[in-house]
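Illustration: Rab-GAP TBC domain-containing protein.
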Amino acid sequence: MSLRSNSSSSSSNYSKEDDRNKDTSSSPSTFDSRFNQTLKNVQGLLKGRSFPGKVLITQRSDPLDQSALQSPNNDRRFSNDDTEQTDKFDRSVEDEIQNRSNASASSSANKTKASTLSTDNTSKVVQKTAMGARSTDSARLTKFQKELSGTTVILEKLRELAWSGVPPYLRPTVWRLLLGYAPSNSDRREGVLKRKRHEYLDCVAQYYDIPDIERTDEEISMLRQIGVDCPRTVPDVSFFQQAEVQKSLERILYTWAIRHPASGYVQGINDLATPFLVVFLSEYLSGSIDTWSMADLSPEKVSNVEADCYGCLSKLLDGMQDHYTFAQPGIQRLVFKLKELVRRIDGINLS
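Result:
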């Protein structure tokens, strides 16, 4: 009997020890799993932020208190304490994240405010510059209008103003005056322009609107050369490819060549006529030149434009006609002057 009781007592003790060992081995793993779960929660809250410091998960070297393992109440208290600590840690992390978020939001707001202020300041500077440019243009425009509104235009002052450019809608009037095609006296201007335009029509009827049998061989050759050059004039602008435009340009150039037999027509004069054609057409056509059409104008307006182009081209070439005559003495004279100028400048630099 004593042996059986001892053996049963011994087996009972062994079973208790095994249970204690199981509890002891399972409790630390439970603690580790909870701590790992807490870390996962914290990492989820951080959303990619770096965790401060290092966290090492290790087994405790000292054995846990056996009484704490045996008592259910103590087990629950240990679990509650651990949960409270975890909650406190989570709350501290959440507070840290919230503080960082607030600081980031405040920094973003300050940057946005600074950017807005910078944009406002830039826009004010641009507006001020634009206003200054407009005021300058307005002042120049006022000066032009003042000079042109007088009974007699002082050409020296008008030329000085035009040196820095002429407002587009004033160019036809200013160009006529500065080239001497229109008189400076406003009372005579309309009558003189009307007379010169009629003279141009008479010249066209006399020299251009005639059959080829009434022309000389030289005139036929010259008209043929002008007919070849007109389609080549400003080929990249569609407006100059219109048949009406090329016909007007042909009449202007041929009439000028017939009236100036010393030089006749020379290639390149067509390029001198195109600016006049565009400027004087701008009195009747608006918008971009790509949308212009000569077909929209009446024959009277077309003849007025041609007459003004012919008159201004004649005034322009009168001062350089010897550039286009035989041996081109005007060009040779300019080359000689340029040679003398270069020689003097080189002499000054060498000395």
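Reading the tokens back as a structure: Confidence is low (pLDDT under 50) at residues 1-12, 21-26, 47-83, 124-135.
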